[in-house]
Fold this protein.
Amino acid sequence: MQGTKDLTQGPIRRQLFNLALPIMGTSFIQMAYSITDMIWVGRLGSEAVAAIGAVGILTWMTSSISLLNKVGSEVSVGQSIGAQDTKNARTYASHNITISLLIACLWGLLLFIFANPIISFYKLDAAIASDASIYLRVISTAFPFYFLSIAFTGIYNASGQSKIPFLISGSGLVVNMLLDPLFILGFGWGTTGAAMTTWIAESVIFCTFVYQLKKRHKLLGGFPFLTRLKGVYTKRIFILGIPVALLNTFFAVINLFMGRTASTQGGHLGLMTLTAGVQIEAIAWNTSQGFSTALSTFVAQNFTAGKKDRLRGAYHTTLLMTSVFGLFCTILFVFFGTEVFSWIIPEREAYLAGGIFLQIDGYSMLFMIIEITIQGLFYGTGRTIPPAIISITFNTLRIPLAILLSSIGLGVEGVWWAISISSIAKGIVSFIWLRTLQKKIF
């Protein structure tokens, strides 16, 4: 198949690294957008960080919804490639892009229209809420660029070409980093300037993807971006993608409520700590997610080809690498959390509060990474429901647990402990569930 890599033969470890490193790089680039914004906005004070942090949970929800077509692309296109079915691979690629555009337009319009009532959920001061609403409206108009770029990324990942999305996303990050200080501080546009740089960066990424696919390198021999949807393909994409999108979207909704609880318990400083802390936590999440996505792509091709020995080898290799990194993150957050947080926000009161969050959250890092790694194995075999059940169940428990722990005297720290305890539980249950299915998979 033109432009694709065959993952059903060859050295497992090298193939996983070749897939995972660009995917991790792409994930870190997406994370860097938010962190770059926070670093520059942080110079304006913790109130400004709270404003973009409030929207940050909504953009997290947006990226969760976009996973429907990212995972839909990675599994449907990847399994078609493994079966040597070029026609199906092209058709699935076109369907994923078309569905992605439709969802992006509907979701972006919804957030644009209802920006004010959505932001009012946090119970923020009027000035902070106003800045957050404007920020949300600006970035919601860029959702078509973002959603389509995510779908393109999934198609390239399925083809074993994860390096291309990494390079393209990198170009957008460069634009964002160059424009942030100019728009935020130079022009004095503050949080609105941060939103505008994100809009421009996402449009650059989208245009570069279009140029790459249409002019430079016709992946899979070329395929139309938009197509008339057919039931059999659409149904398959939704079956694969909805559980993943649902669990991640639900996760974002839970964090919306956690954000409100943090705001209630700790004011704008509590909300800032949660949203900025989650961005720092993404260091661990994005690294493990890179290996998880690589494992999913690898498994998708080899599972269809019936090469179970390669599945087993890939899983054990990935789990070993991610577990070592999980231990590193635990040490970093537990013992050096305050210093890490101060790199993002130099305000003393802010980084001291953030250090407490990272210390408590750090105890769960290894378990979180185990859960994400096992997700990749499940996704590659088409089993997207078990991770959804685990995630939805224990993320839902965060709300009553946070309320309970906060009410018994822990205050806002009760919210942080609820997050940490639930992550530990998800890792343990994911491992147990895999053990019950391993004979069918391996």
User: Anything to note?
Assistant: DSSP finds 15 helices and no strands in the chain. The CA atoms of residues 138 and 196 lie 7 Å apart. The radius of gyration is 21 Å.
